[in-house]
Amino acid sequence: MLDRRAFVKSLLADRGGLAVVCGLGTPTYDAAACGDHPLNFYLWGAMGGAAMIGLGLALAQPNRRVLVLTGDGEALMGLGSLATIGVKQPKNLVVVVLDNQHYAETGMQPSHTRFGIDLVAVAKACRFADALHVSELSDADRIRDLAQRGRGPILVQALIASDDAPRVLPTRDGHAIKTRFMAALGAAAGSG
Amino acid sequence: MAWPDAIYAQFRRVGIRQVGYVPDAGHSRLIELCVADPNIHDVVLTTEEEGVALVAGAALGGQRAALLMQSSGVGNCINMFSLTKNCGFPCLILVTMRGEFAEFNPWQVAMGSITEASLKLAGFLTYRIEAADDVDDVVGAACDMALAGNLMIAVLLSQRLIGRKVWTK
After folding, report:
1. A47 and B79: CB-CB below 8 Å?
2. CATH number of the CATH domain containing B79
3. Which residues of B touch A56 (CB under 8 A)?
4. Whether residue B23 has a cis bond before it, omega within 30° of 0
5. ipTM value greater than 0.90
6. In this complex, which of B46, B57, B79 lies closest to A55 when CB atoms are compared?
């Protein structure tokens, strides 16, 4: 099983123009723990919406790589969006699900993945170009390469340890997160 | 010009590039026009709340977007509207109304009768259209206000405008 912070740190290393949509709860804290970045779009709510935000962004910015970094509970709430992404086939979209098999934010109740519900199989059934499980830190370089260059849509279900990491809280001001993200995208237009 | 064509002409005027929808009889003509337009990403959704997240992502990436749904779909969106409200994303929705004029199916009434109030509670400005002649002007105004002002605006296309649902079988 992966240490979530080490895995995310490796995933976001040398990220260049990569745009990252962070699902609410621990994935948002994990991304912030790697160092705040203007191309992080942190969610503090809108559960189930992360992958669709990624789709809208990927369609609008076809030359930029878009990474949705989310949790198993958040992905499960938006399961239908995998079918919607499968219809549109965005080549620049990668969804990485940090799967600890629990709802960490609400008291570690087990999620559906704990009972064997397989998000990789769902993504494959939804015509994702690639979908895979990872559970070793030695896989992180390969996943970073997929995020930056792989032909999407791709889903990675990363099995992470369920121990609690210290919370690193970015701003909760949605307007500020949006405005900063859009300014960074504009400033870096064409570089992604 | 038929009213769906008037909406499409406004989409073209303001540069709508993404249209999310759940298939709907009232919007069928407008959906066809959007699907046939190579400048528009038509995104068929499994549930309307996906569309709210879609338009937020489109706005983040610098594209204008609109959503098409039936009044029942508004109920599916409520929590996701917190995304557009908290971040100040434009959210333009064209809602075909059910559960009001000459409704055959009483199951549509429960949501149809609270659609406009629900939208207002969620932070939308709402404009209701009863006559086809008003579509161009009202939709044009809604597009401009939502997209230029980062506002949440819903246009309610009344069931009388859309016409009675014809049950042929």
Report:
1. yes
2. 3.40.50.970
3. 18, 53-61, 63, 65
4. no
5. yes
6. B57
Sequence-distant (≥ 6) Cβ neighbours of residue B35 within 8 angstroms: B42
Does residue B87 contact residue A177 with C-beta atoms inside 8 Å? yes
A163, A187 Cβ separation under 8 angstroms = no
Q: What CATH number is associated with residue A76?
A: 3.40.50.970
**Does B43 contact chain A (CB < 8 Å)?**
yes
Phi-psi region of B86 (alpha: psi -120 to 50; beta: other; left: phi over 0): alpha
A45 → closest Cβ in B17, B45, B82:
B82
Residue B168 lies in a domain: no
How would you label A119-147 residue by residue, b for 16+ Cβ within 10 Å and e otherwise?
bbebbbebebbbbbbbeeeebbeebbebb
pLDDT in tens, chain A (192 residues): 899 999 999 999 999 999 999 999 999 999 999 999 999 999 999 999 999 999 999 999 999 999 999 999 999 999 999 999 999 999 999 999 999 999 988 889 999 999 999 999 999 999 999 999 999 999 999 999 999 999 999 999 999 998 878 899 999 999 999 999 999 998 554 433
Q: How much is the pTM?
A: 0.96
Length of chain B: 169
Cβ-defined contact of B47 to A80 (cutoff 8 Å): yes
Instruction: Say whether B52 and A49 touch across the interface (CB within 8 A).
Output: yes
Q: Examine residue A192 and state whether it is found in any structural domain, yes or no.
A: no
What is the chain B residue with the closest CA to A178?
A: B87
Say if A183 falls within a structural domain: yes
Lateral strand order in the sheet of A154-159: A40-42, A19-22, A66-71, A93-99, A154-159, A130-134
